[in-house]
Structure formats: C-alpha cells, structure tokens
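Please describe what follows:
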Amino acid sequence: MKGTYELMKYAVLDFETTGNQPSDEIIQVGLAIIDEDLSVSKIYSSYVKPNVAIPPFITGLTGITEDDVKDAPDLDMVMMEMVPLLNDVVLVGHNVAFDFNYLQSALDKTGYLPFTGRILDTMDFLKIIFPSLTSYQLGQVSSEFEVQHDRPHQADSDALATALIFIKCLEEIFGLPLLTLQRLSDLFAGEDSDLGWFFDAMLQEKERQFDANPNVFTYYRQYALQVDDWMEMIPPRYGIDSNPLSMMTFEQFMDEIRERLRAKLPQYEEREAQNIMQNEVMQAFQEDKHLLVEAGTGTGKSLGYLLPAIYHSVKQDEKVMVSTHTINLQEQLRERDIPLLTEVVPFPFRAAVFKGRQHYLCLRKFEHKINRRDFATPKEDVMIAAQMIVWLTQTETGDDEELNMGNRGGDFWETVASESDSCLGRACPWFRKCYYHRAKHEAGIADVVITNHSKLFTDIQAGHQLLPSYERLVIDEAHHLEDVAGKHLGLQLKYFTVVHTLTRLYKDSKTGQLPNLRGLLQSAKNEKASGWCSLIDSMYHSLIEVKENWDKLSEMLFTLMPDRSDAAPGDPGQFVLRLLPNKKPKEWDVAADLENQIYVALGDVIRKGERILSEIKDESDDFGAEGLMTDISGLLKDAANEREGLRFFIKLDDDETVYWIEGNGSYRSRSLQIFAVPIDVSAQLKSYFFDKKKSVVMTSATLSVDKSFQYMIEQLGLEEAASEDRLFTSMLPSPFNYRDQALLVIPRDFPSVKGSVGDDHFVSTLVQSLADTAIVTRGRMLVLFTSYRMLRQVYDPLKELLSSEGITVIGQGMDSGNRSKLTRRFQGQSASVLLGTSSFWEGVDIPGEALTSLAIVRLPFQPPNHPLIEAKSERLQREKKNPFMKLSVPQAVIRFKQGFGRLVRSSQDRGIVVVYDTRILESYYGKYFLYSLPGPKMEHMPLGQMVPRISEWLIAEEQEGSSLAD
C-alpha cells in the first residue's frame, strides 16, 4: 500500500460528556492515532474536570463518577496535550458529528483555531462495507468483529475499539475489486464530501496496485458480482444414475443420520418427541394423508419434518414444499438447519429458499437508477446505493433480508425490487444473473423448497405460475395459516400503494416513467413520435386528477372513523371502522362519486398508455426503451388492479366479506388502509390444499385447545378429511420437565379491570407488584400486555420505581426500535424489564439467563369489536353457536400458550410465570387456559405472599443448581 494512501494518518476521537446538549461539558477524552502502516501507534486519554456536576444517568451509562474527575486536569491543560496530536490528521469517530462539535467548541474555549482537516465517520464505512451487519452500534460491532472493548462508554476504550474497527474497514475496502471502487468513487464524486475524497484516493491507490484476485468475482456491465450465470447450477445428484435410497428404508436412513449427528455434535441427545414426529410425518406422506401435529418448544420440529421431507423427495423423486409464517424462521432453516443436514445426510440433496418476488433485487432497475442518479433524497439514497454496490460483491441471493438499509431503505428498495409486471424475462440483459430467476431455477431443481405462507397464496392467485408444482406440503407455524389466507384472498389497499403507482408514472414533468419515455421519444427521429408525446401530455392531467380525488376520498374515509386512543402510535388499527353492506354511512354517495371519477380517469390513462406501448412495439425503430416500457406496462397493470380493488370495496355488496378501514392519528388520512376480507376461508383452504394435495402436514407449538384439535379442524376446513379418515392428529410429549422448570403463580386477590384501561388502584397495585417481582428476579423479566394503553400507564411509574435498583425498563413503542432491536437491547442489559404488546406474545426467542420471569397482565382475548372477529361472531350466532366459547376462548388460549412458551426455551431454562388476571381462577372458562399448558407447577395465593414464594423458589432452584455442579 504505497503512494497517497500511505500519507494518510488518522486520529480516532471519542469524548464522554455530561449530556448531549451544546452546553454540556467534556468529562473524558480518548484519542487513538493510526499510523500509515495501519497500526495504532498511540493512545491518549484523560479525565477532564467539568464545571458542573455529572448527572446520575451519565454515571450509570459511563461508570464515570465525581471521584474520578475531582483531581483531573481542566480543559485548558488537556487541550494543550491533545492539539499537537491533531496535526495533519484525518479525524475519525463513531457518529463523528457529536465528537466534532465538542472538539470545535473546546478549541474555541481554549483559544485554538478550529480543526479544518478531513472528517470521516466509521458509521458510514460500516454501512457501506458491511451492509449485512444487524447493528452499527459500537458495542455490537465490537463483539461481531471480536474486537476487545472492555469498557463501553469510556472514551479511551471507545476510541481504541473504533480505531480497530476502522482498520478492519480499511483492509476490507482494499480487498474490493477495482470496478467496485470506481463505482463508489463515481457515486460520491458529485457530493464534494470527505467520503468522496476518501474513495477517490482509495481508487487512485488501487489503480497502482496489481489486483491479486481478479477471478473471485464476476464482472458484468461495469459491476462486480459474487454470482455467476444461474443456468450453470445443476441438479443435486447430476451424473448419479441410481437412486441413493432405492434400497434403504426410512428407519435405516434415520439410523445413519443419528449416527452422523452423534459424530458431529458431541452434545447431541436423541429426543423422543422428535423421533415420533419424524415417523408420523413419514407415515402421512406414505399414506397420502394430512397431519396436524402439535410440537412444543424443544421438540426440534424443523428436523422433525425436514428429514422425512428429504427422504421422501429423493426416494420418490417428487418435490416437498415447506412453508413458514415468518421470514425469521425461513432464515433460521437456511442458516442453521440446512447446513447441518447437508453435512449429515449421506448423499447430495438441495433445499432451496424461495421468497416472495419483492424480496429480490432487480439488477436492471438498479443499474438504471444508478446511471440516472434517480435519487429521491440524495444524501440517504447515495449511501444506500453505495451499500448495495458493495453488497453485490458479497450476496449470492440478492435478498433484501441480508441488507441493513436503515429507515429510508424501504422506499429505495421499492424502486429496485423485482416485480413480475416489469420483468423483461429472457430479453433482459441481466437475465442470466437475475436473482429472482436464480431462486426460481434453484427451487425448480431442488428436492425441498422452503417458502412462506404469503407466497403459497400469491402462487394460488397467479394460477400456480410462481412455485414449482408440488403434491406434499409442510406448514410450520400453522396457527397463522387462516389469518394469512384471509389477507391474501381478500383485499388490502394502503393509501401509499396507490400514490406510489401514480408518482412512479408521473411526479412532475421531469420525474416519473412517462416523462422519461417522453424524453426518449422527443429525441427520436420517428414521425409518429410527436403524436405519442402529445398523447403522453394528455395523460398527465388525468393522473393529477386521480391523485387529487384519491386524496379527497382518503380524507373523507378517514373522517368517518371514531377516535381511539388505546393503540400504539404507528400501531395499525389505532382507528378502525367496520362498514356494513346493508348500513352504508350517509356520506357514502360522496365516496362512490369520487371513486367513480378515479375509475374513469384511471381507465383513460390505462387505455392511452397501453395504446402508446403497443404502437411503439410495432415500430421497427429501436428506441432503447424496452426496460422503460416494461416498467410502464407493469405500473399500468398495478393501476388497473388498484382501480378494480377500490371499486369492489366501495360497492360494499358481498355478505360473505367483511369490509373495514384502519388508520392512525399521527399520519391521518395518509395512514389509511382499506380491507375487504372473506369472513370464512375454511372452504377455500379445503379446495386449494386439502382436496388437491396428497398430503399436508401442519405443525406449530400451539394447535390444540384443552387437549383437542377441534377448533383448528373447523377453522382450516379439515372436517371432511377427518370424517373420511384422511387426517392424523398428534400431540407430542414435551422434552422439558415443566414441573421442575416452571412455576406459575396467580395472586388470587388481585384487583380486576374492565376494558383496556386500568383504574388508578389497578395500575398502582400492578406497578408495585411488577417492581417487587423484578427486584427479586434481578430484572430479566418480560411483561406481556394486551393493550398498548395499559403498557403506557405502567411504563413511567415502573421506570421510576426501578431506576434506584439499577434495573432498566424498556417499553415497546416507548423506546425506539422494532421488536428484534428491543429484544437485543433486553438481552444485552443484564438487569432489565421488557414491556411488550401483541407482537411479543410469540416469535421472541430469549433462551437462558436473560429471561427468568414472565408476567401476563391480562388473558389475551382479541378485542371483540375488531371487524373480522365481530363478523365471525355474528355468523356463529346465526348458526346458534356460542361465539365466546367457539371463537374468543380458543383464540385466546392459543395466544396464551404462545406467550407462556417464551419462558422455557431449553432444558436448562427455568422461570416463573405470574398471571395477574384472576378470571383464570374465577371464571368457568379459566380451566381451558390452565389445562392447555404443558404442566408447570401451579399455585395461587394472596398477593402479599407472592414475592416471598417466588424468592423461595428461586433460592431452592439456585441451591439445586449449585449442588448439581458440585
């Protein structure tokens, strides 16, 4: 690394301060100098004596106390030692703007000239060079890179960790192909930024070097990629003539697998429940039957169905489809289970993950966007583009789940995601490199295909054009199938879905695909071009009219909704209104009139657009606009679908459909969503799956209610299969000893509550009890609420009570971050209490020490006034059935079991569940909740005895643990 690059010397700076306001003062300085040879040559650190007291919060965060700074040098003294070190350096920091502002202010206060050198931020480098990191926080990145970072939030430790991370970034940048560096340099060239200067210097350096590994990447159309042509991907047993399973029974196959697992994993133990499940899945496949199998936590259900699926698909040479509800589980199968099975299955096989199309990058659209610098918010979009240019050298899938794009990423991704309507197919210059077609091809040659519930239904709607054909299906997380079916077989339309379609066609005379096409036609030498241009001009007016009417209609629909304040800000359904076919609101004529104007004007746009496209196609001239025309054609199809969907909704004329609207207060009419969902999907599930497929296996930790599958059989449309003996059901024994591992406590004299808001007595009793319990369990507590409003009532007073105990309270919707961010924070802080609502009841996996107690504030009944629940209840009443017992209780029991399942995640986990809802003891339906649990020790007592009992149980458990260890 010679030349200009060697002349760069970096100073990595970190300050600890008394707060984050400009008036706050520096209390510690850390500076790490990185020399030309990329080694840390010097670390300077010092406490600084401030003129104000250190707030307790800062002491809690940094560990820096008044004692540490009382004899420290003052700012003048520290700056005198520090300033010479800042001579001719590039200043580096993690979130450098914060430290830079304090530096300038300190230089000013002590009479020095301001710093005028270059400034770089390691956050920018991490985002660009490591686009798949899940977090860019210094602590998380340090542990990911195995960088020593002993004292987070202390300046010297932070500065050294940042320096080591920065060096890793520099080494990584130098390993990038020349073409990628050219791309990055071009991208930032127009920015006149220090980042632009840096990549330019790096590029000059790289151009002087001999490229050591040019063959690691594929170079195509001025991009460096990790992938080759997907057509070269061959079937897994290509060239092997005989079937490796022709002479092997399933038992023999499983014996060999277990032997290999034992050899590979020293801690491997056979699980009885997993063995039973494998045999039952195999039997269902062999006998062409369906199977409902409830497999609790710890069963190892993914191997419970993957091994029979692999055996069956290879032996019979027919594909098995596996579907999950969440992308998380799909990723877990891809990252953890499939690689393990690849090592222990004694022959080659292929399991492919195939997601919804919008998860894959369209390289043609991406290339077009970069070439035109088509950036909506240039500063953020340039960063995302840079991330993706580097990501192309790393990704083999082009799947957006690998990228951490930050908050603006979603809008950017929408413009470059693959879509069927804008796909050029074989005519696309990128076809052989295309990530979506690679995934589709891989699914085509795979033995087992892992998809998700959403894609199963999109495939049905697309006439089975998306997924490879299959006769056997495994549905994991099957308790969500009905819900997903409703969403896909019905209509869900957001305000912004329509707006995006309109603005991508035309935003103003310079931006949008129609103005882009007009620009190309204008410069063409075709005599018809001027006619097409004026036709395009005439479409602009209609599009503006549609946008204005859609705004008016959304505003009007939003004002129909009653005010609701018990949902989270940004929670869908803060406002909900059900619309009844026989009781239309009195303003409905106005809505119908606006919808009609939208329908007519959009129809005009679609007709003209299709006419122009077909006339241009018929001309022999090549306008170089094929990609653009495909995009426009796709947008016109979207517009046509949205137009029909809106018409179906406004008609309100189908008794089998539930119609409703949702929105939230913060974004008003722009948050509008309209829904039209079938009341009952069981008949459709029956006709699409249980009548058509030879074998469907459904599994989840929660399928039974009161030890019976009847509820699920009715919801999913399995009655006929059950009556014809085509359905097996199975409840697997739990591998855990719940009697020893879990204690369920109910304070029987706890105050009760009506509705979603607690009165003062209820809230203060709850807060006090949660605080007392959290102190005994040293935090490590998850509290599940059914209403966001109650969570808000508890958050502040609980935080206050626990702050003196050093226990942090993290609240969903109160602290920033999505579910996985909050869960990571909870796991990272040993003494903390996490308050969550609906999305925390399931899918949150916090094994081991991090979670010791779980509090369930209320039994998780769905709000009875939710439009879909209401419509289902009315239908049951008409059938002379009790909606509460047939619908509300079973749904709540399944959710309750999901919540309970958060506690014990492994055979070593132990913990306490507190249920504060006394209905579980007093009501006639309470027993269904208790009987559905996997057998924990259950005790009820007066509230006053609860904390001593928990304390006693924990002490006994610790003693037992230590005597076992002796």
Q: What stands out?
A: Confidence is low (pLDDT under 50) at residues 1-6, 566-573. DSSP finds 36 helices and 25 strands in the chain.
